[in-house]
Amino acid sequence: MGVGSEVSIAQLIYFVHAAENGSMTAAAEELFVAQSAVSTSISLLERKLGTTLFLRKRAKGLELTADGRELLIRARQILTSIRDAVDSVSPNALSGVLETACFKTLAPFFLPPIWARLSDACPTLRVKVTELSCPETLHALKERRIDVAITYDIIADAAVHFEVLQKRPAYIGLASNHPLASRSAISLRELADEPFILLNLPASREYFLNAFTSNGVAPNISYEFESFETVRSMVAGGHGYTLLNQAPSHELTYSGLPIAAVPVLEPVTPLNVVLAYRTGEHLTAKAEAFTSICRKVVQQSGEQAGS
Predict the structure, then answer these.
(1) DSSP of the chain, one letter per residue?
(2) Domain annotation for the chain: domains and CATH numbers
(3) pLDDT tens digits, residue range 210-261?
(4) Residue 266 has pLDDT above 60, yes or no
(5) pTM listed for this prediction
């Protein structure tokens, strides 16, 4: 009989919670058990596996070892499979927790209408969402920290399937009083010497800069921000121009000033708004319910934008 047969589900649950919280005390509080139960369970698990899963650091808490990181991925998969098995024969398959993520700049556009529909369609389903960049989203999916995400297809990864929901072409953002704001299209070359305000998020940065370099243009980067709305407000204030994909339903920024969105004359690869989930795996009933609503919301927003 192997070691695996001696490992209990409770030990895996305690281990996962301790790893995610970086603390046995925090894990115990989250699970409503004594701290000694968590520490004893994990020590016993380490003894059975014959390896150290955590480095105990007094000031910094718990730090996963290489074996601990590997077990965390596998343990999440095991616990998800168990939940799925229970859900498959449960009349309340749409109850419980679903872990999701949303790309930071897409969250304000899509999460409110998605949550409005979720509360009506799945009142017993609790969907937890984390705002992540594209690289962070792929990492979270492969580590099984989330089950599905709404993001852009900036980075390809064979382990993650992208279901395209909406195509978002790039556009040039200008202050409404800019001399070129009323044009039907603008060449990037015409703006090469003007201050460029860059949305600086992981992978997004490379996408926007590639739009210039692939067309033989070197942008004059004057400002870089991680906030979508900071970029738009700076543009509206006349401090430069930008390149973006997602456009709000109105022209106003947080500052109260408008921004003009003008198509790019040169060919720039559009971004797709996608549902991302692990390749080759069936979605759970909870994930299916969530993705079904996401499809309708994103599709409807695309139809409204095109009208």
Answers:
(1) --GGGG--HHHHHHHHHHHHHT-HHHHHHHHTS-HHHHHHHHHHHHHHHTS--EEEETTTEEEE-HHHHHHHHHHHHHHHHHHHHHHHT-TTTT-EEEEEEEETTTHHHHHHHHHHHHHHH-TTEEEEEEEE-HHHHHHHHHTTS-SEEEEE--S--TTEEEEEEEEE--EEEEETTSTTTT-S-B-GGGGTTSEEEEE--TTHHHHHHHHHHTTT---EEEEEES-HHHHHHHHHTTS-BEEES---SSSB-TTS-BEEEEEBSS--PPEEEEEEEETT-PPPHHHHHHHHHHHHHHHHHHHHHH-
(2) 3-86 (1.10.10.10), 93-167+272-306 (3.40.190.10), 170-269 (3.40.190.10)
(3) 999 999 999 999 999 999 999 999 999 999 999 999 988 788 888 889 999 9
(4) yes
(5) 0.74
